Amino acid sequence: MKYKALFFDGIDDYVDCGNDESLDITDEITIEAWVNRRGNSGDQHNVIIRKSETYEIVVQESDRRVWWALNTANYWTINLTGYYLPNNDWHHLVLAYHKDNGGGLYVDGEVVQPIAADGPISPSGYNLGIGDNLENLGGWNFKGIIDEVRIYSRALSEEEIKRSYYHQPILDGLVLWLLPQREFMPIKGTWWDRSGKRNHGTIHGATPSTEEFHLPPLRVLKV
Does the global pTM surpass 0.90? Predict the structure, then answer.
């Protein structure tokens, strides 16, 4: 199956999804994307998804370690995981968090770092960016392909995260679903949001990729 994801050149490409109130999530959240890193951009950090001073998933360029941050009492800092994102291969990254129950950072359906509960997330006035840091454009560029970006206003369970990895999308709680496939192709500079919240992304430089998207083998999981 071929998906039309977006390729980011690692120089000046990014997507701006705006700052709608539906993206300022405080009590529980899930952030999800399929990524295929294509090497270094020359920047210290490589943004996958970032809403400055609220939430983010980022790659540390020097060693390809994935890190995350949430603007809670203690988590608005670099929280390095033990996962090193390989180049030239597809991987499914998910950050799920609940203010009372905590959560975790998941790769390909498996937790790589548990996250302890640390209270609610503080919102910010910054726009949601993909592929770069919109607070400081040009400094945190990602080089590679990004697809199937989703954000939920709730923390998906471990079982739901596994279902999503095995291409069984969860619809409940979606506030962002960027899916540039066929009728949702990124045309006229827009990466269309399929969630119904109209958080469409404005494309700056990133280009459609027709590379074959390697999904894991279909596996039907019981709900």
Answer: yes
